Amino acid sequence: MKDWRANKLMPGAIIPKGGTAREYKTGGWRSATPKWDEEKCKQCLICWISCPEGAVLVKDGKVRGIDMDYCKGCGICVAECPFEVIEMVGG
Amino acid sequence: MEKCIEVRWHGRGGQGAVTAAKFLAGTALAGGKNIQAFPEYGPERMGAPIQAFTRISSAPISIYCPVENPNIVVVLDETLLDIVEVAKGLSKDGVILINTLDDPADVRKKLGTKKGKVYTVDATSIALDTLGKPIPNTPMIGALVKVTGLVSLGDTTDYFTESFSKKFSQQILKGNVEAIKRAYKEVRGE
Amino acid sequence: MKNISKKRVVATTGNGAVAEAMKQINPDVLVAYPITPQTAIVQDFSQFVADGAVDSEYVTVESEHSSMSACIGASAAGARVMTATSSQGLALMHEMLYIAAGSRLPIIMPNVNRALSAPINIHCDHSDSMGARDTGWIQLYSENAQEAYDNTIQAVRIAENKKVLLPVMVNLDGFIISHGIEKAEFIEDRKVKSFVGERKPFLPLLDVDNPVTYGPFDGLGGYFMEHKKNQADAMERARDVILEAAEDFAKISGRKYGFFEEYLLDDAEIAIVTLNSSAGTTKHVINELRAEGLPVGLLKLRVFRPFPAKELAEALKHLKAVAVLDRALSSGFVGPLFSEVQTALFNLETRPKVINFIYGLGGRDYTLHEARKAFEELMTVAKTGKIKKTLGYLGLKEVEVLV
Predict the structure, then answer these.
(1) Distance (Å, rounded) from C-alpha B19 to C-alpha B26?
(2) How many Cα atoms occupy the beta-carbon half-sphere of C396 within 13 Å?
(3) Which CATH number fits domain C8-253: 3.40.50.970, 3.10.105.10, 3.30.70.360, 3.40.50.2300?
(4) What is the pLDDT of residues C281-313, one digit of tens each?
(5) Which among B187, B65, A79 has a CA at the least distance from the CA of C144?
(6) What are the pLDDT digits (tens) for C62-83?
(7) Which of B14, B81, C39, C138 could form a disulfide with C168 if both were Cys (CB 3.0 to 4.6 A apart)?
(8) Hey, is C286 helix, strand or coil?
(9) What is the ipTM of this complex?
């Protein structure tokens, strides 16, 4: 079912493959953008746990940035960060 | 059209009228007949007047409504004669079988009808003697078998033993069979 | 009793016959919530589970809304699923019925027809299943215990067919059939087993190697309308599948089924169209009237959804007058079955006059008298060619109405 697209109808509107949310880039919804300060970050990973979109990029156990393809700009990471490392900026 | 025999049972909740209606149908089915048995669903309390119906026919039965013109009426409790019109709709050559100490002629007066033939049997005493409980349904079946010849006595007692051998103890089975046989002997006609 | 064949001839209630069919089908999951007059079905089945006579997972729930939800989950997971209900229970399931059908889940559900409150009533009429007409379920109707048993077994084959994948509701009359004892013939277990086969689920949810999504959002920019059309097409395809299943079923049972049964209809001039047990009582009266020389007949509908409009029109077109009997009410218009039958006949060049009788609401008896009355009215319509009243009632008591 690798070649499945939404316009190829399945009975019961079943989606015959996993991980389809990846194709749905929600970053365009953003009206404010989180700005993360790598210098001040204590790498507690609370932002990574808190992000509802899984948009906090982590590699080798360390935060590397935020994926703007999927970040909706909800600001939860800003509210949750104990060290005020992230702030919302316009646009 | 083959004639369909229709039976209406009158009893009080707990006397086993519904079980009797079903049992008669089961016996007839075992003898290769087509059958129906069903109660009238109403207030199913102990002691409340209830009705049940049995249909027996050589041809398939397609009718799905209560019996209105019974060939046979069976009354399990004589106190019902005062409150229920048991002879209602009885066919001319019909049979009314009543559980009572009285003679058929006396019961005839109470019924207020000239239709049919009246039979009586003291099923309650028979039940008390054979089962130790005043449940008159099995003796009434014995009397019904005698009066109507719908099924044979042997088939009836055999089917009873077969149907209830898992449910009842040997003693209760024997008591019931004895009740059927005694009522078969003791039933009186006009 | 002489054992003529391996078929078992038994004295059974309608509920007992349905429970026996369910036992022989041996579904993976049986979801149970009791409601009169259906309760005996799930009660019998719980005994089968306790006795080890079936392998089914028996799931008890706290309402019918939950029972249909559990059916949906289990069916999407890939299981063969059954439940049973009646009346208020079916009404409480209502929103989930659409989800079962829209998700194309082949759930099988006997519905023991019972009136809907108010006033409170536990007896037979068809308001429950008629209210579920547009939910997308296939609806079969059964005259007696035998047909309820036969329909339940055939329902599995119809529902699970790849061309269909739709839930099936098997209707039988509450108390009249569900609790009445009559003769029925049960097929050998192994024959039923091979007839229903194993469910081969289409993209089951529990196939973890091939993850799928059930119940996605399908909004404005999506394909909701196309999915609905696809679902309606499946219902159309069910027509052939129903007939195929009936043909195969005849091979193991000797009993023939179609979209409907015609009883002395070919040479009839007037006829009754009805569902379920009233058909039997009507047949009895037809026999009596035929003996008096009257050209009367019956069409007993078995398949209500999909509605066999073309075939029905073909079977009725030669008649002078037809009475459609509805055991349900659509306040403000005619009975639901009448609407369908009249629509089916409308485009014929010449068509019979059609009248409608509401009967048997809340278990009111449909006796020989009521059937005769319907035929008498039909004779007048046929003779005069005129309909005095489109909608009438059978067996209505004379009462003084205060307000």
Answers:
(1) 10
(2) 13
(3) 3.40.50.970
(4) 999 999 999 999 999 999 999 999 999 999 999
(5) B65
(6) 999 999 999 999 999 999 999 9
(7) C138
(8) helix
(9) 0.89
Q: Which chains have 3 or more CB–CB distances shorter than 8 Å to chain B?
A: C
| Cβ separation A13–C102 shorter than 8 A | yes
**Is the pLDDT reported for residue B124 higher than 70?**
yes
Cβ pair B186, B123 in contact under 8 A: no
Strand order in the sheet with C57-60: C57-60, C29-32, C81-82, C108-113, C168-173, C138-142, C303-305
C235-277 per-position pLDDT tens digit? 999 999 999 999 999 999 999 999 999 999 999 999 999 999 9
Q: Could you give the C-alpha distances from C192 to B134, C26, C186, in angstroms and in order? A: 45, 10, 10
Report CB contact under 8 Å: B63, C281: yes
Return the H-helix or E-strand segment holding A78. Answer: helix A76-80
Quote the pLDDT of residue C3. 42
How does the average pLDDT of chain B come out, rounded? 93
For residue C398, the 8-state DSSP code is: P
CATH number of A37-91: 3.30.70.20
- The 3-state DSSP class for residue B74 equals strand
- For residue C124, what are its two tokens? 């037979």
| CA atoms of C279 and C275, how far apart (whole Å) | 6
- With cut-offs at 50, 70 and 90, classify the pLDDT of residue A22: confident
| Interface contact A9-C230, CB threshold 8 A | yes
Q: Are C17 and C146 in contact (CB under 8 A)?
A: yes
Residues 6+ apart with CB under 8 A from A56: A47, A48, A63, A66, A67, A77
List phi, psi (to 5°) of A88: -90, 135
User: What's the whole-model pTM score?
Assistant: 0.92
Residue C4 pLDDT > 80, yes or no? no
Q: Which residues contact B68 (CB under 8 A, 6 or more apart)?
A: B89, C367, C368
The token pair that represents B187 in the structure block: 């039933």
CATH class of the domain defined by C260-393? alpha beta
Could you tell me if C260 and C306 are in contact, meaning their C-beta atoms sit under 8 angstroms apart?
Answer: no
Which chain C residues in 216-275 lie under 8 Å from chain A, judged by CB atoms?
216, 218, 222-223, 226-227, 230-231, 234
Beta strands in B29-82 (DSSP E): 34-39, 49-57, 72-75
Q: Would you put residue C127 in left (φ > 0), alpha (ψ -120 to 50) or beta? A: alpha
Would you call C281 and B1 a contact, using CB atoms and an 8 Å cutoff? no
Domain residue limits, chain C:
8-253, 260-393
